[in-house]
Write a structure and sequence with these properties.
43% of the residues lie in helices and 10% in strands. It is of the alpha/beta class and 327 residues long. It has a five-stranded parallel beta sheet with strand order 4-5-6-7-8. The protein has a three-stranded parallel beta sheet with strand order 1-2-3. Strand 4, helix 6 and strand 5 form a beta-alpha-beta unit. Helix 3 packs parallel to helix 12 and helix 4 packs parallel to helix 5. It starts with 6 loop residues before the first strand and ends in an 8-residue tail after the last helix. Bound molecules: manganese (II) ion.
Amino acid sequence: MSQQIRKIALEEHFMAPGFEEYSKAFIQHIPDDQRRQLGTKLSDIDEIRLGEMDKAGIDYVVLSQTGPAVQAEPSVEKAIARARENNDFLARRIANHPARFGGFACVPMQDPQAAAAELERAVMQLGFHGALVNGHTLGTYYDDRRFDVFWERLQALDVPFYLHPIDMLALPPSFAGHPELNGATWGWGVETGTHALRLLFGGVFDRYPGVKVIVGHMGEGLPFLRWRFDSRFGAYPFGVKLALKPSEYFTRNLVITTSGVCSHPALMGAIGEMGAQGVMFSVDYPYESTAAAAEFIDTAPMDEGTRALVCHGNAERLLKLNATVDA
Ligand code: MN
């Protein structure tokens, strides 16, 4: 067995009571036996999860409600109430294992002011580390100026925003007849990568330069296209003006996790583009294997300083945990 390094993981999901209805759309496509096992793991915030973490050398995880959560709630009032309910539930469960678990808040983006207020409550009163939002809310994207109130608050609180996948609201013609493409295999990455680019090209990071957005799944492929974003945006700017080159917002504002992409060549490429400070380990529990993710990062061909940053140093800096390596 390879040498284990201490790890922090950031895209680790649970299911709060009553939130199953929102997740049916994608969970129904998972085979029966796997679905039962997933249900058990999602609702456990105790021994099963801690056992897997211990075996993998994962010290601390930041928990988030599994998708799409309140992003799929059509009633604004209900979204506000359920986000709050979710965060209170999670805070109570974290209190049983405060050294092992932290939380990302569920926020009702249906109402940007309410989302900012709930984020602040979750960070200031519940001790959460930021928010995890499952993509668009009923087709609304957060580069819209209506969300400036939210970004301003996020920046002031100095916490990260995890932009997590969700289904596209409407499928483009290229997906017709291929349901296997619309989901975790491909569609979620296209949807989420596009949303992250909307934030970048929409000027959110110029208006709020302190905002940190975390994108999972090896940055949904975006790091590999940094050079092309500069080159082609330079050729076709459509009147859009940015303070920096598109590539310069990577790592400054966009950071990534390795969730669900356990490939050494992909990791090396991402670190090459982002630098060692822009990449963080994650599992995507319970949809991905904790053991496989740990083995992947423990055996990745990189120097120990880089491994320490990717496995825990960058997360410690971003989440303001007790730092154990210089970053
Ligand atoms: Mn996930």
